[in-house]
Amino acid sequence: MKIFKYLFLLLIIIIIGGSLYIATIDDKFDFKATVITSIPQEVAFTEINNLENWKKWNPLQTEDPTIQFSLPEKTIGKNANISWDSEKFGEGNITTLETLPYTSITQEITYKAVASNPTQKMYWIFEEKKEKNAIKISWGIKGKLSFLEKIYLIINNENHPEKQLKPHLEKGLANLINKIEKEMQAYDIHIDGVTKHGGGFYMYN
């Protein structure tokens, strides 16, 4: 009987030690994909700020042709929303929380199929580069790992959100740039600047 007692105590020690180790693992994550492009900053921001456009370059679309997107009446700016239903990726939605014209967009992404911590922050940053007519677009995600997710991470490091999601961000940026460049070539768009009138922002040639 003593051996069972010792085995039980050993199991308790392993569980406590394992829990303490898992608790020391950093639960925060913040990663992003970036691209340098000559696309005008205003054009890139406007394309991304309108969630209706996401159906044409979103990486989920190219990886699962069966995906269905749903859009409410508001698709631009704060409180705009887009949701999807996919056989491969499940259900989810993105809501725009805040926009700073031509500089940044802050959003919230929710994966309905994920039981723990299904909501994460998503962000876009638009920066001018010293190179003439060049900007850097950054698309990132940040959030926190649940205790269960940290256990999965110990079992398989490939479960980390950065390894699972960053390739989608990189592919989405490539799709985005390709779409805008094709449209600019087709319509021969040239933008010299932006001016502000009483009704909002206008682009002028």
Give the total of beta strands: 9
Computed structural class: alpha+beta
Mean pLDDT: 79
Q: In angstroms, what is the radius of gyration?
A: 22 Å
Contiguous low-pLDDT stretches (5 residues minimum) are 191-205
Helical percentage: 25-40%
Number of helices: 6
SSE series: HEHHHEEEEEEHHEE
Strand content: 25-35%
- What global shape is seen? elongated
Distance between the termini: 88 Å
Largest sheet: 7 strands, antiparallel
Strand order of the largest sheet: 1-7-6-5-4-3-2
What does this structure look like?
The structure is a single chain. The chain has 205 residues and is α+β, with helices and mostly antiparallel strands. It contains six helices and nine strands. The radius of gyration is 22 Å and the shape is elongated. Mean pLDDT is 79; it is low at 191-205.
